[in-house]
Amino acid sequence: MLSVKPVSLMYLRRKFMKQSREGVYLKKEMSVNNSQHLDSTVLAYVMKTLNDRYDYGLKLVLLSIDEGITGYRDDSLESVKRNEKDYGIPLKILSYEDLYNWTMDKIVKEVGLKNNCTFCGVFRRQALDRGAALLGVDKLVTGHNADDIAETVIMNETISPPVILDIIHSGECMRLKKEIKLPPQGLCKKCGYISSQEICKACVMLEGLNTGVPELGIKKSSKVKDKIEKLSLQCSGGSCNSGGCTA
Ligand SMILES: [Zn+2]
């Protein structure tokens, strides 16, 4: 059983109270880079502990994405299922295969090892949005390990949880300068999920995979630009044959 030191729990409780007054739902994402899934498991434990201890009355749901990587994800999905039992929180597993009709194994065969991480990252980001919509939740919580920061701190200072949390907190307090404008957030014309472009990156990449042009969405050539514009026009005309088309 994991244990969280009181100072950490108090800090997290303050963050929790500050950032969410109405309800928080738990997203469970297994980190590709974390073989022991510690970040997500700690997050699940902390959220459940806070919810039980302070009687927040939240409905927590675990969401896990199966990218379809043989020999990797199968093991970690077993860990997620154990979390479901240990914490008594319902679990939803969504796969790339169901969502996109592609697994990462198939994508690697198509695009090779060089750019496959781009596909995985873009698809996973949207898979989480889709999972949230499917579960009807309005908040996602993600766990990210601070191993690199922690190692740096531990190498230079006495081991002290507040020091690590202070560093994390300072990162969270970073703000963009007022003069920097972010692209407006809208909805993808094709799939209807959040995007800052007319056609989201996931749809562009999917189109590339389905039409034998996997570099679509990775390279920025005029040929690629033409294809994206064509896709956008198809959606505007309602002829893209996408189930999620918003045109
Ligand atoms: Zn889209």
UniProtKB/TrEMBL annotation:
Cellular component, GO annotation: cytosolic tRNA wobble base thiouridylase complex; mitochondrion
Residues covered by the Cytoplasmic tRNA 2-thiolation protein 1 C-terminal domain: 187-216
Top-level taxon in the UniProt lineage: Eukaryota
Swiss-Prot/TrEMBL GO biological process terms: tRNA wobble position uridine thiolation
Alphabetized UniProt keyword annotations: Transferase
Domain named tRNA(Ile)-lysidine/2-thiocytidine synthase N-terminal: residues: 35-156
PANTHER family: ATPASES OF THE PP SUPERFAMILY-RELATED (PTHR11807), CYTOPLASMIC TRNA 2-THIOLATION PROTEIN 1 (PTHR11807:SF12)
Protein name: Cytoplasmic tRNA 2-thiolation protein 1 like protein
Originating organism: Argiope bruennichi
